[in-house]
């Protein structure tokens, strides 16, 4: 690392990159964090805010294959699809479907379950360091099904949760209404994830961690990383303003945009995006007291500081298309089924979940160079997994082994 400006430089100031930066700074490393945009302003700002340590079940599922006609063609499907994107991205689609077999889903769930079991140990020290406890709410999380068929279809998922030690209570429709009387849609069964937490405002959380990183002496540069070149001693980075920086290690943490960082090798990974939208109903945050995931509709309603956020669904349509009117209309329709007349939303939003076809993140040395580390691909649970990812990256930057097996997330698994 001799002759480097920094021990470690990180591209991307979403929740994952900021968590890597703060962990490395807390370990006493000399750290630079770079992003052309404001900290946390990308996908990390508009998510559903759940610390979803129970979410070891990937979107991949045998039922996706059997239900494909519904998912592809129904207006009531929580999955949207752009045919042109699908056709230009066939290898991702095929690999995703290959990872929908019963055996693969079991393996993926168990790997995610293991990583999630360490999530709090990665996140809590950051929250404590940044004094962000006031942004966290501990009031459990509710998952509900409207139909018996939907609930029966989730049996395998619920078994995977149980196998991975997720604690939940099974609730009847009356139990659910007792907990959340404002819910108006048909209810069949629900699960209550005991001890689950959520964030009042995910953007504020990333901003708070970023402010702590800077207060501790970390270097923040509001510039994109355009190019990287690794050698045995470190990595040379080019920033968008034309300057050059030298670092011992370089971390790619640009979420769904990671492939654009030239020279890092990220372009060769099978990363795509699962787009997700949200609607905000400013004056309705009081309707529920905890996140409610409507499982058969594919989204959460969450009480947050800015209001009631209705966030979720999946759209496979790439990074460049604007917000989908169809997806937003679906969320608005379902929000009315859920709560009755709550008027028109005050805000809509589109975010880009970074997703590999096997639903596992890439965390660790790149195939390109041991000095380039990947920290992207956290799909639906990047907020939850950011802290533990940051701790693993800090371990690797210091040359120590993480305290559990992280080989399932090895970026070299793609060959
Ligand atoms: C609707 C929705 C609901 C969700 N709900 C939840 C939830 O409840 N719980 C949960 O755990 N997760 C949830 N997620 C997932 C979570 O939001 C993501 O996994 C997470 O935000 C990804 O964080 P990130 O830091 O990798 O990416 P981002 O937040 O996208 O950050 C990437 C950053 O990289 C920057 N960047 C891009 N190119 C460059 C470059 N060349 N150089 C430097 N920087 C660059 C961007 O400007 C951006 O700031 C949800 C996602 C969506 C869409």
What labels describe this entry?
415 residues; alpha/beta; D-Amino Acid Oxidase, Chain A, domain 2; nine-stranded mixed beta sheet; eight-stranded mixed beta sheet; 26% strand; globular; binds flavin-adenine dinucleotide
CATH topology of the domain at 56-89 and 136-196 and 271-355: D-Amino Acid Oxidase, Chain A, domain 2
Uncertain ranges? none
CATH architecture descriptor name of the domain at 56-89 and 136-196 and 271-355:
2-Layer Sandwich
Structure ligands? flavin-adenine dinucleotide
**Alpha plus pi helix count:** 13
The largest pleated sheet is described as: 9 strands, mixed
Question: How would you state the average pLDDT, rounded?
Answer: 96
Structure explained in plain terms:
The protein is α/β, with parallel strands linked by helices. The protein has a domain at 56-89 and 136-196 and 271-355: D-Amino Acid Oxidase, Chain A, domain 2, CATH 3.30.9. Helices cover 32% and strands 26% of the residues. The chain is built from 13 helices and 20 strands. Strands 4, 6, 7, 8, 14, 15, 16, 17 and 18 form a nine-stranded mixed sheet that branches. Strands 1, 2, 10, 11, 12, 13, 19 and 20 form an eight-stranded mixed sheet that branches. A three-stranded antiparallel sheet has the order 3-9-5. A hairpin with a 4-residue loop joins strand 12 and strand 13 (244-252). Helix 1 (15-26) packs parallel to helix 11, helix 7 (119-130) crosses helix 11 and helix 7 (119-130) packs across helix 13. The longest helix is centred in the last third of the chain and has 17 residues, at 382-398. The chain is globular. The two termini are 28 Å apart. The mean pLDDT is 96. Flavin-adenine dinucleotide binds at residues 11-17, 34-37, 41-44, 47-50, 52, 224-225, 253-257, 260-261, 276, 278, 311-312, 351, 353-354, 376, 378, 380-384.
């Amino acid at each position: 690392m001799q002759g480097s400006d920094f021990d470690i430089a990180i591209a991307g100031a979403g929740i994952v990159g900021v968590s890597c930066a703060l962990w490395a700074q807390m370990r006493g490393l000399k750290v630079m964090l770079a992003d052309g945009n404001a900290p946390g302003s990308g996908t990390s700002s508009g998510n559903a805010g759940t610390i979803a340590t129970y979410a070891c079940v990937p979107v991949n599922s045998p039922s996706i294959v059997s239900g494909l006609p519904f998912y592809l063609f129904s207006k009531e499907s929580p999955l949207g699809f752009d045919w042109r994107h699908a056709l230009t991205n066939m290898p991702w689609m095929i690999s995703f479907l290959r990872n929908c077999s019963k055996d693969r889903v079991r393996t993926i769930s168990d790997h995610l379950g293991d990583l999630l079991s360490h999530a709090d140990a990665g996140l809590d020290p950051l929250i404590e360091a940044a004094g962000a406890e006031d942004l966290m709410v501990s009031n459990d999380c509710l998952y509900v099904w409207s139909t018996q068929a939907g609930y029966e279809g989730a049996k395998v998922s619920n078994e995977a949760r149980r196998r991975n030690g997720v604690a939940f209570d099974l609730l009847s429709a009356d139990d659910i209404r007792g907990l959340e009387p404002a819910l108006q849609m048909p209810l069949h069964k629900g699960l209550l994830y005991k001890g689950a937490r959520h964030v009042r405002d995910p953007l504020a959380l990333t901003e708070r961690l970023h402010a702590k990183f800077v207060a501790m002496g970390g270097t923040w540069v509001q510039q994109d990383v355009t190019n990287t070149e690794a050698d045995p001693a470190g990595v040379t980075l080019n920033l968008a303003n034309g300057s050059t920086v030298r670092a011992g290690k370089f971390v790619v943490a640009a979420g769904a945009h990671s492939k654009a960082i030239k020279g890092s090798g990220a372009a060769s990974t099978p990363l795509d995006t699962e787009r997700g939208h949200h609607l905000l109903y400013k004056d309705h945050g009081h309707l529920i007291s905890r996140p409610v995931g409507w499982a058969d509709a594919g989204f959460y309603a969450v009480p947050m500081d800015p209001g009631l956020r209705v966030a979720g669904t999946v759209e496979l349509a790439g990074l460049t298309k604007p917000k989908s009117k169809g997806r937003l209309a679906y969320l608005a329709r379902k929000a009315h089924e859920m709560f009755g007349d709550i008027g028109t939303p005050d805000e809509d939003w589109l975010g880009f979940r970074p997703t590999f076809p096997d639903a596992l993140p890439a965390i660790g040395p790149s195939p390109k160079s041991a000095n380039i580390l990947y920290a992207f691909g956290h799909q639906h649970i990047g907020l939850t997994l950011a802290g533990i990812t940051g701790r693993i990256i800090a371990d690797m930057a210091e040359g120590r082994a993480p305290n559990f097996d992280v080989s399932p997330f090895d970026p070299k698994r793609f060959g």
